[in-house]
Each structure stands twice: as C-alpha cells, then as structure tokens.
Amino acid sequence: MKFVSSPTLESDDGSVLTLGIGLIIACLMFVTVVSDISTLWIARSTINRIADGAALAAVQSVDSDAIYRKGVTAGLTLNSASATSRAHKYVAAHGASQTAANVRVTSVRVVGNSVTITIVAEPRLPFGYLLPITVGSMTAKAQARYQLR
Fold first, then answer.
1. Residue-range definition of the domain harbouring residue 21
2. Is residue 94 classed exposed, middle or buried when 0-12, 13-18 and 19+ CB atoms within 10 A define those classes?
C-alpha cells in the first residue's frame, strides 16, 4: 500500500496559481495608473482648449464707442467688461466635460487689443478613488490679440 504524504515546504504545488494571481494584480495596477495618467493628459488639453476658446471669444469684444469717437485708424481697443462677460459665457457653455470639473475663469486681463485669460479646473480621474493621491487643480492660460488688417 502506498502512503500519500502531505506537501512539504520543498513542494511547489500551487506556485503557478500564486504567480498568475500576482501577475494579474500587477497588470491591473499598471492599467489603472496608465489610464489615470492619460486622463490627466486629456484633461490638460481640454482645459487648454477651453482657455483658447474663451480668449478668442473675449477678443471679439471691440470697444465700439472708441471706434465712433476716434475712428478705426487710431487703433482698436477692447471693452474690458464685454470681454470678461464673453469669456465667462464661453466657459459656462463649454466648460463641463468628462475629464474636468469646476472649470472657472480666475482672471481676464485686457490690455489694448489683447486679452489674457486664466482658467482653473479640477481633473476627474476614472480610478482616482483607488489611488491615494490628490491631483489638485490645473491652470491654463491663453492670450489672444485682435489685429486689424
């Protein structure tokens, strides 16, 4: 009669299963980190796109009173209140996205015929709840200049 011996420490029964589970967990962690990093990249480009659009919308607010007083040849100036209003309206209409939350205009600076806009947003990570990191907020700055030709 043969006796079945219990596994000893020298036996490698089940080690492939343990290795397989470890590799699956490592692959899932890698996919999670890559997905969060790519979402941050997309959120950054989205915030830059929104800032560019808001600057282009704001630069279209030419001061019409100055045109009637001085004429077009004196150089165009922008209406600061109108530029700020247009920038806020653009961000309100285009700010919400799947990759960025709380998109808001922090500053609109009008100097002569140029507008500089600063926008702040918080990126949304798909697996942010799994990683114990805080991303904070992202800032984008855009400048547009009105040129009369």
1. 15-145
2. middle
